Amino acid sequence: MHGLGDLESSTMQILWDRTEPATVREVLGELNETRNLAYTTVMTVLDNLHRKGWVTRHSQGRAYLYRAAESRAEAAARALRELLDSTGDPDGALLHFARSASEHELDLLRRGLDRRHP
Amino acid sequence: MIIAALLVLVALGLAVFGGRVPHALCRTRWAPATILTSWLALVVGSLVAVLCAAVLVVLPTHSPAHHLMRMLYPGLVDRVHGLLSSHGDLVTAGLVVVATVLTGRVMVAMIRQALARRRVHRRQVELLRVVARAEPGVFPTMWLAHPSSVAYSVAGNPALVVATDGLAAALSEAMVAAVIEHERAHLRGRHHVLVGIAEGLAAALPWSAFARRSLDLVRLQVELAADRAAAGRHGADTVRAALLALAGAGPAGAPAGLACDWVETRLDRLARPVSRWSLGRFVVLPLAGVGWGALPVVVGLALVTLPSAVLG
Prior knowledge:
The complex is a heterodimer. Chain A is α+β, with helices and mostly antiparallel strands.
């Protein structure tokens, strides 16, 4: 699925499925069951994920051990909160099928405020 | 100068006095796609009319427009010029300046809107690609493991539909398919762009009733259009059922009108049978709508570009 960065996604799936932390080499091994990636590629992916806060790491000897920063469910909830946070949506970016009455009210209140205090 | 004045007056007239237009468009009961096209033609036509007027004002007096008017109405032009005197030209120039500035504001607002939408899309993709399960398709559906019932679409590259597992659990398979199809229709029809244009207009011209009401018009019509597309594939009853299930009851005592305006209208539209093809509805009226909006564009462009030799 080009454009959706499925390396980052696949890496997170691997870490979420594991109970103990993983090294770059261990993640590389699992990813290369269906791909042909270089060590440095996976290292970059994990580095990016760490920078963005998705994973934590601690060093063990010369290698880093990576683990998911939160559980899959917690990550989904946090992402969803941000995905649906209306202050981040300049109207029209997201078109919902139907919104609950309270969401709509919040939206109208916010727009009223925006109009008065541009 | 007269043509420039006319062009500008039509455009400014729409912004200042056009408050009834969105409601009138809504009442026509045309297909949503027709209403949206007519509205867009009006808006774009007005913007182009102002730009053409600005060019006409800047052109030297022996412009094609001037020659054409002299040719068609030899006595009229001199008489009108006599009546208006030089103040008329000044007033026209003033109006054109005002209109051009407003047009500039509108275009800046639309560009800002587009950039903001792109930022939102980028952030959405960044989050979704890590936490969502992608269901492949022309427009991939990104599934979130969350108990809430949510479905929306995000325009961009790649364009996405986002839905939660909670929604899939709350609705039947057919209803879920209908909701996803509704969101896909938004992406196919480029509705986010239309809403963005309406938002830009409302932000740039907050005093204009036409701009404010256009926003509600466009938002409603894009939902009706997407409902229609989903109903075409999955049946109107399925879409109605999904809408009823998801719109949900507000907090106790919430006024019925507040959140439920569009829901009621949408349910109502879904309950009517879609009218069959007819010449009037699908050919004459859309052409009229588009033609009406495009008239200023055609007139302005023709007058600006035709060489004066042709017109003598």
